């Protein structure tokens, strides 16, 4: 029996998790699986880029500070491979300049560590589920119907 809370017939969004800290990867993986997402986790940006299956993901969550490739460089390299989904950057810094750089690089959300599960789940809802036409309100435009 599955512990997932996904509804029968509902799309399971594939979410990539890239963080060099195993505890954060596992925590996010368990959380997302329990909420009906299909998480794939990677210990490095290089590992994500080397996996051809990653290109079919709906969304990506990446840590900023990783030993092989920082989160900004990772998104740039992933975009260069043709991936065009929404991305969430997680970081320990409160640096406003980093937030601005992340947004300029294409991150839709920046969540500060130590984060609790609510900001991640809310961001995924906005970026994945509200991105589907018709999911948010009668006219399919998003907005007030789902908090987009």
Description:
- The protein has 148 residues and is α/β, with parallel strands linked by helices.
- 34% of the residues lie in helices and 16% in strands.
- The protein is built from five helices and five strands, in the order βαβαβαβαβα.
- The N and C termini lie far apart (33 Å).
What gyration radius follows from the Cα positions, in whole Å? 15 Å
Name the CATH class: Alpha Beta
Rounded average pLDDT: 83
What structural class do helix, strand and pairing data support?
alpha/beta
Largest sheet report: 5 strands, parallel
Q: In the CATH scheme, what's the topology name?
A: Rossmann fold
Order of helices and strands: EHEHEHEHEH
Q: Write the CATH architecture name.
A: 3-Layer(aba) Sandwich
The domain tally reads 1
Low-confidence stretches: 133-148
Shape: globular
Indicate the percent of residues in helices. Answer: 25-40%
What is the H level of CATH, i.e. the homologous superfamily?
Response regulator
Q: DSSP helix count?
A: 5
Separation of termini?
Answer: 33 Å
Q: Which range does the strand content fall in?
A: 15-25%
